Amino acid sequence: MDYLSAFGSKTFSDEVMREHLPDKVYRSLKDTSNLGKPLDPGIADVVAAVMKDWALGQGATHYSHWFHPLSNVSSGKHDAFLSISPDGRVMSEFSSGALVRGEPDASSFPSGGLRATFEARGYTSWDPSSPAFVRNGTLYIPTAFCAYSGESLDSKTPLLRAMQALNPQALRILRALGNTTSRQVMPTVGAEQEYFLIDREMYEARLDLKLCGCTLMGAKPPKGQELDDHYCGRIRTRVSDFMRELDERLWQLGIPSKTKHNETAPAQHEMAPIYQTVNIACDNNLLTMELMRGIAKKHGLSCLLHEKPFAGINGSGKHNNYSLSTDDGINFLSPGKNPAENKLFLLTLCALIEVADAHADLLRLSAATPGNDHRLGGYEAPPAIISMFLGEHLTDIITSIAQGIRPSLHKAQSLNTGVNVLPNLRKDSNDRNRTSPLSFTGNKFEFRMLGSSQNIAFTNVVLTTGLAGVFSRFADRLEGCKDLETEVANIVADTIQNHERIIFNGNNYAQEWMEEAQRRGLPNLRGSLNIVDAMCEQKNIDLFARHGVFTEAECRARYDVFLESFVKVVTIEAETMLQMVRRQVIPAVISYIGEVAGSLLALEATGLENPATRNHLETLNNYAQALHERCDALNDACHAQENLPNGLRQRANYFQETVRLRMSELRESCDALEVIVDDDKWPMPTYTDLLHRV
Ligand code: ADP
Ligand code: MG
What we know:
- The chain is an alpha+beta fold.
- It has helices spanning 3-6, 14-20, 23-35, 44-57, 96-100, 156-176, 200-204, 207-212, 237-252, 278-298, 343-358, 360-366, 392-402, 457-479, 484-499, 511-520, 538-546, 552-605, 611-639, 648-674, 687-692; strands at 62-66, 78-80, 83-84, 90-91, 101-102, 122-126, 133-135, 138-147, 185-199, 257-262, 268-273, 276-277, 301-304, 318-326, 388-389, 414-415, 425-426, 438-440, 445-447.
- The chain is globular and about 100 Å long.
């Protein structure tokens, strides 16, 4: 099969549905998935029967309600398509009930107190807007997951709710501007995914990588990314074999993987799919991450999706490219030939400027993970200050409109290399700004703060809910106005007046920007614990409640889940570090010290003096002493009951401020020893082994 005909062959695709479902059922299902109409329960029987036959034809024996609880990994139990008839015969079975509703144990997933252990019931419900697929003999049915009481315990439900909130408001804008044909507006998202590939054996030899996904110690290698020789460089055969298989598997699952290349750090790579409707993009990204891990293993590699696997080397992020599109293909952020007169474009731009400024806290929160704490603001990813890059041309257009001046016309420019045989190139109206957290890139905005391990859902919930709110107010103004042109200009002027501070076209890594941002009153919240409280701020609870995206209880639950998980992640890292140091590093160091001491004695017995070796021995011994002391300090920090505060919030702060500090002190001693201890004795692969041995 060629790659084009294999595309989507493992998904219950539009083509399969059109071919096998009765026309009426097909159209009804499409109205639900494409236009957000309520699902007609009457069609579930037919869909289940057709889906089962298709899945059996793909070799599936099981089905699974696939959902994304708040733990950040996807879940689902697997049931066989199997029943026994009254006369004892075995049959394949898949009822409409089994398609539409599942019942996992809700108390076994993070619920932030929404569910106690004894209140176990939870439900998954079929999301017909995201295609089912077959993988490893199981039919996966994308579902949403909620508690018995109806509260969402997953990442998908709020996203679907936000999409539902946005649609009518975006349609009001379209109608006010004279559009009578579009029926549905959906966010579109393309999620670029960064990752590391390292040798599997090296990975297996390090407990920190296996348990935490990142290294907890490791001296700076002689060669890191200094030479800028990895980005888009030649792809090594082993990596390229991995990438090829990944593409093939993604294409079979209908995931339009498009771009692949080496990233900045050694052993770092990126894949980007073609954008899709946001909920599908989100499911696809989660599936992509799962596939990356599995396929890497087959190739003797290990895929690291942690935000900061190696200190001192660029970490990995995820770029969330975002726009809005109608069912008939209008992109709200397409500037067209004359953006200054493109009302839909100007309004969407203004709406996003307002969202970025008014909800900067929530956007920042959406990129908060314990791993991303090590990455944001480290001159390798955007700083923790939210700002927006529009580029000079667009900034000029909206500031001119706001001042009632005619924007200067932008002439398409071409680029001449000075070489006759090379064609002149058409230049984009803007340069790029790689340092901005939220950057306009031609016909979409790119949010660059997300960490590579994250589920993209919450970022898109924030953008989409925010837009629903702003569009609703813009629509009120447009629907009641006398002159559209003037009202759009007024909206632009108001946006500039109230939110101009969020626009910044310069270098986000520069120290001057930190100072300038402070003057503008833009917060710089580096650690995730500095921003997590935003989830429970009244203005944000009100925003989400107003649009039916989260109830107050759901907001509080997510807040608790975040804090609990923060404490657990740091605890696991600290425990892992203690084990590695006590059971691997200290024994290796002691044994090496013994050898050096023995050699020195032998040397001195011959009457020779060797003060340098004696110094070396002393240095080793001092570090070894510090290693012991710092281990004890970290152990105390984690275990001495009198140290541990009671409340969850206080405990999280304590882990951030004290436990992480003890960890970095211990790391310092380890890393200092790594570079002076016998290579043969060092008990784990070094950064050079990990980064340069694929
Ligand atoms: P870049 O702008 O980063 O150089 P691309 O043009 O390939 O690269 O876009 C990056 C991502 O943005 C891709 O996943 C692409 O499909 C996605 N993208 C392009 N147009 C849109 C859009 N209208 N809405 C959302 N994502 C989009
Ligand atoms: Mg990009």
